[in-house]
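Consider the tokenized backbone below.
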């Protein structure tokens, strides 16, 4: 899209009577079942006007006839979409990160999709390199504007695009990966996270290279790890492990099914000058490890971290995900020392917080009593619209196995 161009109105959507409530309240998604009529050409990413059943204006957004989420609202009034609006949203997102003290030399999320009113756009920044993900057909049309706005940000050396994955294919888009603007990032980008340092693989690592949303929770684990035996499940590149090590954990066992990720975790442990004798690296399926550990004489742990990938990427995966979380937490609790702590997380957007909390509460075995201590969640560089509960994809609990 040329910098001086704009998306004009390409269609009008009329909702069924009584279905406008969530959108009026600020929810950015309109599902296909709420639509009574579409006027115009039904093309993926079309910029459309959205009307209530009484023909009053709700807002403007991007339309895609392919999925259950038919419309992602971008504005609440009558407006065209142009480079200026995209730039203003990105500039405002940067101001938020600067105000919260997160836009430093380390890693931070600059744009968080709907939370920054740019649906389908994610931008993470690692030491001067931005990693861009464009997930929706609507955002695909704004790509040039996004890149132009990022190119003007101070201190940015380059933008590496990682627009790939199932969500994008659900939108009818092909994968696209590579340098989108500026310099090519090095094979590893080093960032600081408090006292910890990490090598981040921005080109081929999971997500955009690192899980920035767990920054505060990693620090919390580090603050509680002193003298403890820690189990870090789904370890990826060792974020929780390194913080536990720096927090003077007695021993940290990290379990990860990806060999390359586990090697990077070991490198990050060494980067921080931690004693190799205090770390064990297990290349295995977490469910298998949790099942067999006690049978192999593994002593119990004082602190366990469960940070799995999403178990429910679509709404119809929810029931299967619930079963998976219950099984996972049940197996982990069997390895927890009485008085020990379990940090357990879900990043499945289709599993609500109350459902996840119920799963954890009902995972306790006979004779176990669980005490709920904390409800950790996302960082302030991952803002969520107040009316968009699904945007709070990261849910966490800290529970203690009570001592009888």
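A designed sequence for it:
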């Amino acid at each position: 899209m040329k910098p001086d161009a704009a998306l004009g109105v390409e269609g009008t959507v009329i909702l069924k009577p009584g279905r406008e409530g969530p959108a009026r309240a600020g929810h950015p998604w309109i599902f296909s079942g709420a639509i009574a009529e579409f006027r115009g050409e039904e093309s993926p990413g079309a910029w459309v006007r959205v009307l209530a059943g009484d023909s009053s204006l709700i807002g403007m957004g991007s339309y895609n006839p392919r999925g259950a989420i038919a419309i992602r609202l971008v504005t609440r009034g009558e407006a065209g979409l142009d480079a200026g609006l995209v730039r203003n949203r990105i500039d405002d997102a940067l101001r938020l990160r600067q105000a919260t003290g997160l836009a430093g030399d380390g890693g931070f999320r600059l744009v968080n999709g709907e939370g920054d009113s740019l649906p389908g756009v994610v931008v993470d920044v690692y030491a001067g390199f931005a990693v861009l993900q464009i997930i929706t057909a609507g955002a695909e049309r704004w790509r040039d504007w996004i890149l132009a706005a990022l190119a003007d940000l101070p201190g940015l050396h380059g933008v590496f695009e990682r627009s790939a994955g199932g969500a994008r294919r659900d939108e009818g888009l092909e994968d696209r990966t590579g340098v989108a603007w500026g310099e090519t990032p090095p094979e590893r980008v080093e960032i600081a996270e408090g006292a910890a340092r990490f090598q981040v693989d921005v080109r081929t690592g999971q997500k955009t290279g690192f899980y920035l949303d767990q920054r505060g929770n990693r620090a919390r684990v580090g603050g509680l790890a002193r003298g403890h035996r820690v189990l870090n499940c789904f370890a990826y590149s060792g974020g929780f492990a390194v913080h536990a090590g720096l927090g003077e954990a007695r021993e940290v066992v990290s379990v990860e099914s990806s060999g390359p990720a586990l090697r990077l975790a070991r490198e990050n442990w060494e980067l921080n000058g931690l004693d190799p004798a205090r770390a064990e690296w297990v290349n295995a399926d977490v469910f298998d490890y949790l099942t067999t550990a006690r049978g192999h004489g593994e002593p119990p742990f004082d602190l366990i971290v469960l940070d799995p990938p999403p178990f429910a990427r679509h709404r119809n995966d929810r029931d299967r995900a619930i079963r998976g979380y219950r099984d996972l937490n049940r197996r982990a609790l069997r390895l927890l020392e009485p008085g020990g702590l379990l940090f357990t997380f879900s990043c499945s957007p289709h599993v609500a917080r109350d459902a996840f909390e119920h799963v954890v509460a009902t995972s306790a075995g006979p004779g176990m009593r669980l005490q709920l201590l904390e409800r950790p969640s996302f960082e302030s560089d991952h803002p969520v619209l107040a009316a968009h509960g699904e945007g709070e994809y990261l849910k966490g609990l800290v529970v203690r196995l009570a001592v009888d």
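The longest helix spans residues 83-99.
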